[in-house]
Specification:
Number of domains of chain A: 1
Strand content of chain A: under 5%
CATH class of one domain in chain B: Alpha Beta
Radius of gyration of chain B: 18 Å
Largest interface: A-B, 29 and 32 residues
Oligomer: heterodimer
Bound molecules: adenosine-5'-triphosphate, magnesium ion
Structural class of chain B: alpha/beta
Helix content of chain B: 25-40%
Radius of gyration of chain A: 19 Å
CATH superfamily of one domain in chain B: P-loop containing nucleotide triphosphate hydrolases
Strand content of chain B: 15-25%
Number of helices of chain B: 10
Distance between the termini of chain B: 35 Å
Largest sheet of chain A: 2 strands, antiparallel
Helix content of chain A: over 70%
Number of helices of chain A: 12
CATH architecture of one domain in chain B: 3-Layer(aba) Sandwich
Chain lengths: ~290, ~250
Protein backbone atom coordinates (compact mmCIF):
# COMPACT_ATOMS: atom_id res chain seq x y z
CA UNK A 1 0.00 0.00 0.00
CA UNK A 2 2.83 2.43 0.89
CA UNK A 3 4.59 1.55 -2.34
CA UNK A 4 1.34 2.11 -4.19
CA UNK A 5 0.82 5.54 -2.65
CA UNK A 6 4.46 6.54 -3.16
CA UNK A 7 4.16 5.61 -6.80
CA UNK A 8 0.93 7.60 -7.13
CA UNK A 9 2.48 10.60 -5.39
CA UNK A 10 5.54 10.54 -7.65
CA UNK A 11 3.33 10.36 -10.72
CA UNK A 12 1.17 13.18 -9.35
CA UNK A 13 4.26 15.35 -8.93
CA UNK A 14 5.45 14.52 -12.46
CA UNK A 15 2.04 15.26 -13.99
CA UNK A 16 1.82 18.30 -11.74
CA UNK A 17 4.94 19.61 -13.50
CA UNK A 18 3.42 18.82 -16.89
CA UNK A 19 0.16 20.57 -16.09
CA UNK A 20 1.79 23.57 -14.40
CA UNK A 21 4.12 24.16 -17.35
CA UNK A 22 1.44 23.65 -20.00
CA UNK A 23 -0.58 26.22 -18.07
CA UNK A 24 2.11 28.83 -18.73
CA UNK A 25 1.39 28.44 -22.44
CA UNK A 26 -2.38 27.92 -22.26
CA UNK A 27 -3.44 29.93 -19.23
CA UNK A 28 -1.10 32.89 -19.40
CA UNK A 29 -0.09 33.23 -23.04
CA UNK A 30 -3.26 31.81 -24.61
CA UNK A 31 -1.28 29.32 -26.70
CA UNK A 32 -3.31 26.11 -26.98
CA UNK A 33 -0.91 23.26 -27.60
CA UNK A 34 -2.05 19.66 -27.82
CA UNK A 35 1.54 18.48 -28.19
CA UNK A 36 2.82 18.75 -24.62
CA UNK A 37 3.33 14.98 -24.46
CA UNK A 38 5.81 15.29 -27.36
CA UNK A 39 8.17 17.31 -25.18
CA UNK A 40 7.45 15.04 -22.22
CA UNK A 41 8.55 12.18 -24.49
CA UNK A 42 11.65 13.93 -25.83
CA UNK A 43 12.73 14.56 -22.25
CA UNK A 44 11.98 10.99 -21.25
CA UNK A 45 14.03 9.49 -24.12
CA UNK A 46 16.86 11.96 -23.55
CA UNK A 47 16.90 11.29 -19.81
CA UNK A 48 16.68 7.55 -20.32
CA UNK A 49 19.56 7.53 -22.81
CA UNK A 50 21.72 9.63 -20.47
CA UNK A 51 21.05 7.15 -17.65
CA UNK A 52 21.54 4.10 -19.89
CA UNK A 53 24.59 5.20 -21.86
CA UNK A 54 26.34 7.87 -19.79
CA UNK A 55 25.61 8.15 -16.06
CA UNK A 56 22.49 7.41 -14.02
CA UNK A 57 22.75 10.87 -12.47
CA UNK A 58 19.28 12.36 -12.06
CA UNK A 59 20.46 15.97 -12.19
CA UNK A 60 22.36 15.44 -15.46
CA UNK A 61 19.40 13.56 -16.94
CA UNK A 62 16.91 16.26 -15.96
CA UNK A 63 19.15 19.08 -17.16
CA UNK A 64 19.81 17.50 -20.55
CA UNK A 65 16.16 16.52 -20.92
CA UNK A 66 15.02 20.06 -20.15
CA UNK A 67 17.52 21.49 -22.64
CA UNK A 68 16.61 19.06 -25.42
CA UNK A 69 12.88 19.68 -25.05
CA UNK A 70 13.25 23.42 -24.58
CA UNK A 71 15.54 23.95 -27.57
CA UNK A 72 13.57 21.65 -29.88
CA UNK A 73 10.34 23.37 -28.90
CA UNK A 74 11.89 26.67 -29.99
CA UNK A 75 12.76 25.27 -33.42
CA UNK A 76 9.20 24.04 -33.83
CA UNK A 77 7.42 26.94 -32.17
CA UNK A 78 9.08 29.80 -34.02
CA UNK A 79 7.45 29.01 -37.38
CA UNK A 80 4.24 27.68 -35.82
CA UNK A 81 3.63 30.70 -33.59
CA UNK A 82 3.23 32.91 -36.61
CA UNK A 83 -0.19 31.40 -37.15
CA UNK A 84 -3.08 32.59 -35.02
CA UNK A 85 -4.86 30.90 -32.12
CA UNK A 86 -7.05 28.17 -33.50
CA UNK A 87 -4.57 27.33 -36.26
CA UNK A 88 -1.87 26.74 -33.68
CA UNK A 89 -4.01 23.97 -32.20
CA UNK A 90 -4.05 22.29 -35.59
CA UNK A 91 -0.30 22.80 -36.04
CA UNK A 92 0.43 21.27 -32.64
CA UNK A 93 -1.90 18.37 -33.44
CA UNK A 94 0.12 17.70 -36.58
CA UNK A 95 3.33 17.83 -34.56
CA UNK A 96 1.90 15.35 -32.05
CA UNK A 97 1.01 12.92 -34.84
CA UNK A 98 4.44 13.16 -36.46
CA UNK A 99 6.19 12.73 -33.13
CA UNK A 100 4.18 9.63 -32.23
CA UNK A 101 5.29 8.05 -35.49
CA UNK A 102 8.89 9.11 -34.96
CA UNK A 103 8.89 7.75 -31.41
CA UNK A 104 7.66 4.33 -32.64
CA UNK A 105 10.00 4.16 -35.64
CA UNK A 106 13.34 5.66 -34.53
CA UNK A 107 14.41 2.45 -32.83
CA UNK A 108 18.05 3.37 -32.09
CA UNK A 109 17.00 6.20 -29.81
CA UNK A 110 13.52 5.31 -28.61
CA UNK A 111 13.60 1.53 -28.77
CA UNK A 112 10.58 1.64 -31.09
CA UNK A 113 7.23 0.27 -29.91
CA UNK A 114 9.01 -1.90 -27.34
CA UNK A 115 10.55 1.18 -25.77
CA UNK A 116 13.61 1.49 -23.56
CA UNK A 117 13.92 -0.96 -20.69
CA UNK A 118 16.28 -1.42 -17.77
CA UNK A 119 16.75 2.27 -17.07
CA UNK A 120 18.87 2.42 -13.90
CA UNK A 121 17.57 3.92 -10.63
CA UNK A 122 18.43 7.58 -10.22
CA UNK A 123 21.55 8.70 -8.36
CA UNK A 124 22.80 12.09 -7.30
CA UNK A 125 26.59 12.34 -7.05
CA UNK A 126 26.77 8.56 -6.84
CA UNK A 127 24.15 8.12 -4.11
CA UNK A 128 20.88 6.43 -5.02
CA UNK A 129 17.82 8.61 -4.43
CA UNK A 130 14.08 7.94 -4.49
CA UNK A 131 12.06 9.41 -7.33
CA UNK A 132 9.38 10.82 -5.03
CA UNK A 133 11.60 13.36 -3.22
CA UNK A 134 13.26 14.14 -6.54
CA UNK A 135 9.94 14.78 -8.27
CA UNK A 136 8.60 16.83 -5.36
CA UNK A 137 11.74 18.99 -5.32
CA UNK A 138 11.53 19.54 -9.08
CA UNK A 139 7.83 20.37 -8.83
CA UNK A 140 8.52 22.84 -6.01
CA UNK A 141 11.29 24.58 -7.93
CA UNK A 142 9.27 24.78 -11.13
CA UNK A 143 6.25 26.16 -9.27
CA UNK A 144 8.43 28.78 -7.60
CA UNK A 145 9.99 29.79 -10.90
CA UNK A 146 6.57 29.91 -12.54
CA UNK A 147 5.13 32.03 -9.74
CA UNK A 148 8.03 34.47 -9.89
CA UNK A 149 7.85 34.80 -13.66
CA UNK A 150 4.08 35.06 -13.90
CA UNK A 151 3.79 37.70 -11.15
CA UNK A 152 6.44 39.82 -12.83
CA UNK A 153 6.76 41.71 -16.09
CA UNK A 154 6.95 38.52 -18.17
CA UNK A 155 3.66 37.24 -16.80
CA UNK A 156 2.02 40.59 -17.51
CA UNK A 157 3.40 40.52 -21.04
CA UNK A 158 1.96 37.04 -21.63
CA UNK A 159 -1.43 37.97 -20.22
CA UNK A 160 -1.50 41.16 -22.27
CA UNK A 161 -0.85 39.09 -25.38
CA UNK A 162 -3.59 36.66 -24.41
CA UNK A 163 -6.11 39.47 -23.91
CA UNK A 164 -5.21 41.72 -26.86
CA UNK A 165 -2.24 40.77 -28.99
CA UNK A 166 -2.29 43.82 -31.25
CA UNK A 167 -2.47 46.19 -28.28
CA UNK A 168 0.51 44.44 -26.69
CA UNK A 169 2.43 44.94 -29.92
CA UNK A 170 1.41 48.58 -30.04
CA UNK A 171 3.02 48.99 -26.63
CA UNK A 172 6.34 47.74 -27.98
CA UNK A 173 6.15 44.09 -27.01
CA UNK A 174 7.81 41.57 -29.28
CA UNK A 175 4.91 39.15 -29.29
CA UNK A 176 6.66 36.37 -31.22
CA UNK A 177 9.65 36.41 -28.86
CA UNK A 178 7.50 36.41 -25.73
CA UNK A 179 5.39 33.52 -27.03
CA UNK A 180 8.49 31.55 -28.04
CA UNK A 181 9.99 32.06 -24.58
CA UNK A 182 6.78 30.93 -22.91
CA UNK A 183 6.70 27.81 -25.09
CA UNK A 184 10.38 27.06 -24.43
CA UNK A 185 9.87 27.45 -20.68
CA UNK A 186 6.82 25.20 -20.74
CA UNK A 187 8.49 22.55 -22.89
CA UNK A 188 11.73 22.57 -20.91
CA UNK A 189 9.57 21.83 -17.86
CA UNK A 190 7.90 18.98 -19.74
CA UNK A 191 11.37 17.66 -20.59
CA UNK A 192 12.36 17.62 -16.91
CA UNK A 193 9.13 15.78 -16.13
CA UNK A 194 10.01 13.30 -18.87
CA UNK A 195 13.42 12.51 -17.37
CA UNK A 196 11.79 12.01 -13.97
CA UNK A 197 9.18 9.76 -15.53
CA UNK A 198 11.83 7.60 -17.24
CA UNK A 199 13.85 7.26 -14.04
CA UNK A 200 10.73 6.53 -12.03
CA UNK A 201 9.23 3.90 -14.34
CA UNK A 202 12.65 2.48 -15.41
CA UNK A 203 10.88 1.86 -18.70
CA UNK A 204 9.44 4.17 -21.33
CA UNK A 205 7.66 3.65 -24.61
CA UNK A 206 5.61 5.68 -27.06
CA UNK A 207 2.31 4.86 -25.31
CA UNK A 208 3.05 7.51 -22.69
CA UNK A 209 3.72 10.24 -25.23
CA UNK A 210 0.77 10.05 -27.61
CA UNK A 211 -2.18 12.33 -28.28
CA UNK A 212 -4.22 10.78 -25.45
CA UNK A 213 -1.55 11.89 -23.02
CA UNK A 214 -1.47 15.44 -24.44
CA UNK A 215 -5.24 15.65 -24.13
CA UNK A 216 -5.06 14.33 -20.57
CA UNK A 217 -2.54 17.04 -19.59
CA UNK A 218 -4.70 19.68 -21.26
CA UNK A 219 -7.70 18.33 -19.32
CA UNK A 220 -5.76 18.66 -16.07
CA UNK A 221 -5.07 22.32 -16.79
CA UNK A 222 -8.60 23.12 -17.86
CA UNK A 223 -10.33 21.22 -15.05
CA UNK A 224 -8.01 22.66 -12.41
CA UNK A 225 -8.17 26.21 -13.70
CA UNK A 226 -6.13 27.92 -16.39
CA UNK A 227 -4.07 30.94 -15.48
CA UNK A 228 -3.85 30.02 -11.80
CA UNK A 229 -0.78 28.68 -10.02
CA UNK A 230 -2.37 25.79 -8.13
CA UNK A 231 -5.25 24.89 -10.43
CA UNK A 232 -3.22 22.63 -12.74
CA UNK A 233 -1.84 20.80 -9.72
CA UNK A 234 -5.34 20.16 -8.41
CA UNK A 235 -6.36 18.99 -11.88
CA UNK A 236 -3.38 16.62 -12.07
CA UNK A 237 -4.13 15.05 -8.69
CA UNK A 238 -7.82 14.62 -9.48
CA UNK A 239 -7.33 13.08 -12.91
CA UNK A 240 -4.57 10.77 -11.70
CA UNK A 241 -6.57 9.55 -8.70
CA UNK A 242 -9.67 9.03 -10.78
CA UNK A 243 -8.72 5.63 -12.28
CA UNK A 244 -7.54 4.41 -8.89
CA UNK A 245 -10.72 5.65 -7.26
CA UNK A 246 -12.89 4.01 -9.90
CA UNK A 247 -11.02 0.73 -9.52
CA UNK A 248 -12.10 0.62 -5.86
CA UNK A 249 -15.78 0.90 -6.74
CA UNK A 250 -17.09 -2.67 -6.52
CA UNK A 251 -19.91 -2.29 -9.03
CA UNK A 252 -17.65 -1.40 -11.96
CA UNK A 253 -16.11 -4.50 -13.57
CA UNK A 254 -12.34 -4.20 -13.92
CA UNK A 255 -12.52 -4.51 -17.69
CA UNK A 256 -14.83 -1.49 -17.91
CA UNK A 257 -12.79 0.90 -15.76
CA UNK A 258 -11.09 2.42 -18.80
CA UNK A 259 -14.36 3.17 -20.55
CA UNK A 260 -16.02 4.53 -17.40
CA UNK A 261 -12.97 6.71 -16.80
CA UNK A 262 -13.23 8.26 -20.28
CA UNK A 263 -16.92 8.93 -19.68
CA UNK A 264 -16.20 10.60 -16.34
CA UNK A 265 -13.44 12.79 -17.84
CA UNK A 266 -15.66 13.84 -20.67
CA UNK A 267 -18.65 14.54 -18.45
CA UNK A 268 -16.52 16.47 -15.95
CA UNK A 269 -15.02 18.65 -18.70
CA UNK A 270 -18.39 19.37 -20.26
CA UNK A 271 -20.12 20.20 -16.97
CA UNK A 272 -17.19 22.30 -15.86
CA UNK A 273 -17.12 24.36 -19.01
CA UNK A 274 -20.82 25.07 -18.51
CA UNK A 275 -20.79 25.85 -14.79
CA UNK A 276 -17.21 26.88 -13.99
CA UNK A 277 -15.55 27.82 -17.28
CA UNK A 278 -12.41 29.02 -15.49
CA UNK A 279 -11.86 25.63 -13.82
CA UNK A 280 -12.09 24.52 -10.20
CA UNK A 281 -9.53 27.00 -8.87
CA UNK A 282 -10.09 29.67 -11.52
CA UNK A 283 -11.54 33.11 -11.28
CA UNK A 284 -15.32 32.76 -11.62
CA UNK A 285 -15.91 35.61 -14.01
CA UNK A 286 -13.36 34.39 -16.55
CA UNK A 287 -14.66 32.67 -19.62
CA UNK A 288 -18.16 34.03 -19.33
CA UNK A 289 -19.12 35.75 -22.50
CA UNK A 290 -18.99 39.50 -22.15
CA UNK A 291 -20.74 41.98 -24.36
CA UNK B 1 5.85 75.92 -36.23
CA UNK B 2 8.51 73.37 -35.30
CA UNK B 3 9.76 70.82 -37.80
CA UNK B 4 7.43 67.81 -37.91
CA UNK B 5 8.54 64.66 -36.05
CA UNK B 6 6.60 62.32 -38.30
CA UNK B 7 6.24 62.88 -42.02
CA UNK B 8 4.16 60.63 -44.28
CA UNK B 9 4.16 60.98 -48.00
CA UNK B 10 1.95 59.33 -50.59
CA UNK B 11 0.73 56.53 -48.32
CA UNK B 12 -1.46 54.14 -50.30
CA UNK B 13 -3.22 50.90 -49.63
CA UNK B 14 -5.93 48.99 -51.47
CA UNK B 15 -8.04 46.05 -50.35
CA UNK B 16 -9.06 44.10 -53.40
CA UNK B 17 -10.57 46.80 -55.59
CA UNK B 18 -11.13 49.30 -52.76
CA UNK B 19 -8.59 52.10 -52.51
CA UNK B 20 -8.81 52.58 -48.74
CA UNK B 21 -5.91 55.05 -48.67
CA UNK B 22 -4.78 56.71 -51.87
CA UNK B 23 -1.72 58.93 -51.57
CA UNK B 24 -2.07 60.45 -48.11
CA UNK B 25 0.59 62.92 -46.98
CA UNK B 26 0.61 64.04 -43.39
CA UNK B 27 3.07 65.83 -41.10
CA UNK B 28 2.85 65.76 -37.31
CA UNK B 29 4.79 68.51 -35.52
CA UNK B 30 5.70 68.36 -31.83
CA UNK B 31 3.25 70.04 -29.49
CA UNK B 32 0.42 70.14 -32.00
CA UNK B 33 -2.87 68.35 -32.35
CA UNK B 34 -3.70 67.37 -35.90
CA UNK B 35 -7.27 66.17 -36.29
CA UNK B 36 -7.98 63.56 -38.93
CA UNK B 37 -11.56 64.14 -39.93
CA UNK B 38 -13.73 62.44 -42.50
CA UNK B 39 -16.84 60.33 -43.04
CA UNK B 40 -17.07 56.65 -42.13
CA UNK B 41 -14.87 54.49 -44.29
CA UNK B 42 -12.73 57.45 -45.37
CA UNK B 43 -9.56 55.53 -44.50
CA UNK B 44 -8.62 57.21 -41.21
CA UNK B 45 -7.93 54.05 -39.22
CA UNK B 46 -6.11 52.56 -42.20
CA UNK B 47 -3.72 55.55 -42.21
CA UNK B 48 -2.85 54.74 -38.59
CA UNK B 49 -2.39 51.07 -39.43
CA UNK B 50 0.01 51.97 -42.25
CA UNK B 51 2.08 54.20 -39.97
CA UNK B 52 2.26 51.66 -37.13
CA UNK B 53 3.15 48.74 -39.37
CA UNK B 54 -0.10 46.89 -38.71
CA UNK B 55 -0.68 47.04 -42.45
CA UNK B 56 1.83 47.12 -45.26
CA UNK B 57 1.63 50.12 -47.56
CA UNK B 58 1.40 49.54 -51.32
CA UNK B 59 3.30 52.80 -51.80
CA UNK B 60 4.49 55.82 -49.90
CA UNK B 61 6.84 56.60 -47.06
CA UNK B 62 6.73 57.38 -43.36
CA UNK B 63 9.74 59.02 -41.74
CA UNK B 64 10.21 59.41 -38.00
CA UNK B 65 12.81 62.11 -37.28
CA UNK B 66 14.26 61.40 -40.70
CA UNK B 67 14.37 57.62 -40.34
CA UNK B 68 12.06 55.45 -42.39
CA UNK B 69 9.65 53.32 -40.38
CA UNK B 70 8.08 51.66 -43.41
CA UNK B 71 8.05 47.89 -43.27
CA UNK B 72 8.98 47.77 -39.58
CA UNK B 73 7.02 45.45 -37.30
CA UNK B 74 4.47 47.21 -35.05
CA UNK B 75 6.44 46.63 -31.86
CA UNK B 76 9.50 48.25 -33.41
CA UNK B 77 7.56 51.31 -34.50
CA UNK B 78 6.12 51.51 -30.98
CA UNK B 79 9.58 51.38 -29.44
CA UNK B 80 10.69 54.25 -31.65
CA UNK B 81 8.14 56.41 -29.89
CA UNK B 82 4.83 56.00 -31.70
CA UNK B 83 1.93 55.13 -29.40
CA UNK B 84 -1.58 54.43 -30.65
CA UNK B 85 -5.03 53.74 -29.33
CA UNK B 86 -7.62 51.53 -30.98
CA UNK B 87 -11.15 52.43 -31.97
CA UNK B 88 -12.28 49.28 -30.09
CA UNK B 89 -9.82 49.97 -27.23
CA UNK B 90 -8.34 46.43 -26.96
CA UNK B 91 -7.75 46.63 -23.23
CA UNK B 92 -6.15 43.75 -21.37
CA UNK B 93 -9.56 42.79 -20.10
CA UNK B 94 -8.66 40.32 -17.36
CA UNK B 95 -5.82 42.34 -15.90
CA UNK B 96 -6.17 45.02 -13.27
CA UNK B 97 -6.19 48.67 -14.31
CA UNK B 98 -2.77 49.11 -12.73
CA UNK B 99 -1.35 46.05 -14.54
CA UNK B 100 -2.75 47.31 -17.84
CA UNK B 101 -0.73 50.48 -17.36
CA UNK B 102 2.30 48.82 -15.78
CA UNK B 103 2.70 46.47 -18.72
CA UNK B 104 2.74 49.50 -21.02
CA UNK B 105 5.98 50.56 -19.32
CA UNK B 106 7.58 47.13 -19.79
CA UNK B 107 8.71 46.69 -23.37
CA UNK B 108 11.22 43.86 -23.09
CA UNK B 109 9.82 40.46 -23.99
CA UNK B 110 12.57 38.76 -21.99
CA UNK B 111 12.09 37.17 -18.56
CA UNK B 112 13.47 40.32 -16.90
CA UNK B 113 13.23 43.99 -17.74
CA UNK B 114 16.58 45.77 -18.20
CA UNK B 115 17.83 48.56 -15.98
CA UNK B 116 17.50 47.02 -12.53
CA UNK B 117 15.92 48.74 -9.54
CA UNK B 118 16.34 52.29 -10.86
CA UNK B 119 14.44 51.50 -14.04
CA UNK B 120 11.80 49.62 -12.08
CA UNK B 121 11.19 52.62 -9.84
CA UNK B 122 10.90 54.84 -12.92
CA UNK B 123 8.33 52.44 -14.43
CA UNK B 124 6.34 52.39 -11.19
CA UNK B 125 6.42 56.18 -11.07
CA UNK B 126 5.20 56.38 -14.68
CA UNK B 127 2.40 53.95 -13.84
CA UNK B 128 1.23 55.92 -10.81
CA UNK B 129 1.46 59.19 -12.73
CA UNK B 130 -0.67 57.80 -15.56
CA UNK B 131 -3.21 56.52 -13.03
CA UNK B 132 -3.39 59.93 -11.39
CA UNK B 133 -3.58 61.92 -14.61
CA UNK B 134 -6.43 59.81 -15.97
CA UNK B 135 -8.30 59.81 -12.66
CA UNK B 136 -8.10 56.03 -12.32
CA UNK B 137 -6.27 55.85 -8.97
CA UNK B 138 -9.32 54.63 -7.09
CA UNK B 139 -10.01 51.98 -9.69
CA UNK B 140 -6.41 50.77 -9.87
CA UNK B 141 -7.20 47.27 -8.62
CA UNK B 142 -10.39 46.81 -10.64
CA UNK B 143 -10.17 44.69 -13.75
CA UNK B 144 -10.44 46.42 -17.07
CA UNK B 145 -13.47 44.36 -18.00
CA UNK B 146 -15.39 45.68 -14.99
CA UNK B 147 -14.90 49.36 -15.88
CA UNK B 148 -17.64 51.65 -17.15
CA UNK B 149 -17.40 52.92 -20.72
CA UNK B 150 -15.73 56.26 -20.01
CA UNK B 151 -13.23 54.69 -17.67
CA UNK B 152 -12.27 52.16 -20.31
CA UNK B 153 -11.47 55.03 -22.64
CA UNK B 154 -9.35 56.69 -19.98
CA UNK B 155 -7.52 53.43 -19.34
CA UNK B 156 -6.68 53.25 -23.02
CA UNK B 157 -5.25 56.78 -22.68
CA UNK B 158 -3.39 55.85 -19.50
CA UNK B 159 -1.53 53.06 -21.30
CA UNK B 160 -0.41 55.57 -23.89
CA UNK B 161 0.66 58.09 -21.25
CA UNK B 162 2.72 55.45 -19.47
CA UNK B 163 4.41 54.42 -22.72
CA UNK B 164 6.11 57.85 -22.82
CA UNK B 165 5.84 58.17 -26.58
CA UNK B 166 6.51 61.36 -28.51
CA UNK B 167 3.79 60.64 -31.04
CA UNK B 168 0.21 59.73 -30.17
CA UNK B 169 -2.14 58.32 -32.77
CA UNK B 170 -5.58 58.38 -31.15
CA UNK B 171 -8.48 56.62 -32.87
CA UNK B 172 -11.74 58.23 -31.69
CA UNK B 173 -10.65 58.50 -28.05
CA UNK B 174 -13.48 60.90 -27.15
CA UNK B 175 -16.38 59.24 -28.96
CA UNK B 176 -19.35 58.51 -26.73
CA UNK B 177 -17.98 60.47 -23.77
CA UNK B 178 -20.36 62.64 -21.75
CA UNK B 179 -19.53 66.34 -21.39
CA UNK B 180 -17.67 66.04 -18.07
CA UNK B 181 -15.48 63.20 -19.35
CA UNK B 182 -14.88 65.08 -22.57
CA UNK B 183 -13.57 68.04 -20.59
CA UNK B 184 -11.29 65.72 -18.61
CA UNK B 185 -10.07 64.22 -21.85
CA UNK B 186 -9.47 67.68 -23.31
CA UNK B 187 -7.37 68.66 -20.30
CA UNK B 188 -5.30 65.50 -20.66
CA UNK B 189 -4.68 66.16 -24.32
CA UNK B 190 -3.78 69.81 -23.78
CA UNK B 191 -1.24 68.88 -21.14
CA UNK B 192 0.41 66.36 -23.46
CA UNK B 193 0.50 68.98 -26.19
CA UNK B 194 2.16 71.39 -23.78
CA UNK B 195 4.77 68.73 -23.09
CA UNK B 196 5.54 68.54 -26.79
CA UNK B 197 3.78 65.37 -27.84
CA UNK B 198 2.84 65.27 -31.53
CA UNK B 199 -0.80 64.19 -31.56
CA UNK B 200 -2.96 62.91 -34.38
CA UNK B 201 -6.60 62.67 -33.36
CA UNK B 202 -9.34 60.90 -35.26
CA UNK B 203 -12.58 62.49 -34.15
CA UNK B 204 -16.13 62.73 -35.49
CA UNK B 205 -17.44 65.33 -33.06
CA UNK B 206 -16.65 68.70 -34.62
CA UNK B 207 -17.04 70.52 -31.28
CA UNK B 208 -14.20 68.44 -29.90
CA UNK B 209 -12.17 69.08 -33.03
CA UNK B 210 -12.75 72.84 -32.83
CA UNK B 211 -11.72 72.89 -29.21
CA UNK B 212 -8.60 70.76 -29.43
CA UNK B 213 -7.18 70.73 -32.93
CA UNK B 214 -4.42 73.04 -34.15
CA UNK B 215 -4.82 71.73 -37.68
CA UNK B 216 -7.28 69.56 -39.54
CA UNK B 217 -6.67 67.08 -42.32
CA UNK B 218 -9.91 66.24 -44.08
CA UNK B 219 -9.94 62.74 -45.49
CA UNK B 220 -12.46 61.33 -47.95
CA UNK B 221 -12.24 58.12 -49.98
CA UNK B 222 -8.62 57.68 -49.01
CA UNK B 223 -7.48 61.15 -50.02
CA UNK B 224 -6.70 64.31 -48.08
CA UNK B 225 -9.13 66.79 -49.65
CA UNK B 226 -8.02 69.73 -47.55
CA UNK B 227 -5.57 70.55 -44.80
CA UNK B 228 -5.26 73.65 -42.66
CA UNK B 229 -6.54 75.74 -39.76
CA UNK B 230 -9.76 74.46 -38.20
CA UNK B 231 -11.82 77.58 -39.03
CA UNK B 232 -10.99 77.42 -42.72
CA UNK B 233 -11.72 73.70 -43.03
CA UNK B 234 -14.89 73.70 -40.98
CA UNK B 235 -16.31 76.70 -42.87
CA UNK B 236 -15.85 75.09 -46.29
CA UNK B 237 -19.36 74.22 -47.49
CA UNK B 238 -18.11 71.59 -49.95
CA UNK B 239 -16.37 69.63 -47.17
CA UNK B 240 -19.38 70.03 -44.89
CA UNK B 241 -21.56 68.53 -47.59
CA UNK B 242 -19.27 65.51 -47.90
CA UNK B 243 -18.96 65.19 -44.15
CA UNK B 244 -22.67 65.28 -43.51
CA UNK B 245 -23.34 62.84 -46.33
CA UNK B 246 -24.80 65.23 -48.90
CA UNK B 247 -22.53 63.86 -51.57
CA UNK B 248 -25.13 64.33 -54.35
CA UNK B 249 -25.36 68.07 -53.87
CA UNK B 250 -21.62 68.52 -53.45
CA UNK B 251 -20.78 66.82 -56.71
N1 LIG C 1 -8.08 44.92 -43.14
C1 LIG C 1 -8.95 45.33 -44.08
N2 LIG C 1 -9.36 44.47 -45.02
C2 LIG C 1 -10.24 44.87 -45.98
N3 LIG C 1 -10.75 46.09 -46.06
C3 LIG C 1 -10.39 47.00 -45.15
C4 LIG C 1 -9.48 46.66 -44.10
N4 LIG C 1 -9.30 47.76 -43.32
C5 LIG C 1 -10.06 48.72 -43.85
N5 LIG C 1 -10.72 48.29 -44.95
C6 LIG C 1 -11.60 49.10 -45.80
O1 LIG C 1 -10.94 50.31 -46.05
C7 LIG C 1 -11.83 51.39 -46.02
C8 LIG C 1 -11.39 52.42 -45.00
O2 LIG C 1 -11.57 51.87 -43.70
P1 LIG C 1 -11.11 52.62 -42.37
O3 LIG C 1 -11.39 51.68 -41.27
O4 LIG C 1 -9.74 53.10 -42.53
O5 LIG C 1 -12.13 53.84 -42.32
P2 LIG C 1 -12.31 54.93 -41.19
O6 LIG C 1 -12.12 56.25 -41.82
O7 LIG C 1 -11.49 54.62 -40.01
O8 LIG C 1 -13.86 54.76 -40.85
P3 LIG C 1 -14.64 54.87 -39.45
O9 LIG C 1 -14.93 56.31 -39.22
O10 LIG C 1 -15.90 54.10 -39.70
O11 LIG C 1 -13.79 54.25 -38.42
C9 LIG C 1 -13.20 50.80 -45.74
O12 LIG C 1 -13.85 50.61 -46.96
C10 LIG C 1 -12.89 49.48 -45.10
O13 LIG C 1 -13.91 48.54 -45.35
MG1 LIG D 1 -11.85 54.02 -38.10
Amino acid sequence: MIAYLTNLAALAAIFGILAATLNVAVGYAGIFSVAHAVFFGLGAYAGAQIALVLVPDALVAMLVAGLVSGVLSLCLALPALRVRGEYFVAASLGLQMMATTLFSEWKTVTGGIGGLTGIPRPHIFGVEVGTLPLALAALGLILLATAALMRGAFGRTLRSIRDAESAAEALGKNVAAAKALAVAFACAGAGVAGALFALHMQFVNVESFNLDQSVLIMAMVIIGGTGTLLGPLVGAVILLSLPAGLAFLPFIPATEVGAVQQMVYGLAMTLLMIFRPAGLVGDLSRGKSTA
Amino acid sequence: MSAPILVCEGLSRSFGGVKAVAGVSLALPAGQVTALVGPNGAGKTTVFNLITGNLRADAGSAMLRGRSIMGLAPHKVARMGVARSFQDLRLFTHMSVRDNIRTATETSAWFWQPGGATARRAREAATEEALARTGLLELAEARAIDLAYAERKFLSMARILAARAEIWLLDEPASGLDLASRLRFGALLKEARRQGVAICLIEHNLDVVTELADRIAFLDQGQVLAEGEPEAILKDPKLAAIYFGDRGEAA
